[in-house]
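User: What would this chain look like folded?
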Amino acid sequence: MVLLLPAIYATRDVFTYSSRATYYGSDNSHGTPSGTCGYGQFGRTVNDGGVTGVSRLYKNATGCGACYQVRCTSSQYCSKDGVNVVVTDYSEGDNTDFILSSRAYERLARAGTKGAKELFGRDIIDVEYRRVSCHYTGYNLMFKVHEQSKYPNYLALVVIYVAGKNDITAVELCQEDCIH
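Assistant: Here's the prediction, encoded as structure tokens.
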């Protein structure tokens, strides 16, 4: 057991992918309510506004709600932990995987330094990232009726508060008396 601990500890800080990130401005530095994932106002404030738009990681909307730990690579300005973000939108940037809310972008910086000012001055930064489990206190999974639903002809659902790090690729609904 003692021999396994260094191996387990060494894998805790492994960031799997390298990329680039940028940010977008919005009211209160939160996300946008018009993201393509269909979250509406939830998409602005989930994860305390630590949200992101992605392109390659969007995966035809199955990437919506995925959580990533992102950190910038400039040790002079960037915190070693980075920031955890939730995918709420499809966005394309200049060879970037992440277009972060300005709130999330600011959290990439080391506290107590001029790091945030430096990062915002660069617009696009080098980052490394990994997929992480989503954690929502008091929630495990929730279905929300989308604002565009038009009873009785059209029902649109949005899956929110998906805990863990798996993608939901399909949902099957049936009436109470449905048999498979």
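Strands lie at 17-24, 51-54, 67-72, 83-90, 98-101, 125-132, 142-145, 157-160. If you want, I can go into more detail on any region.
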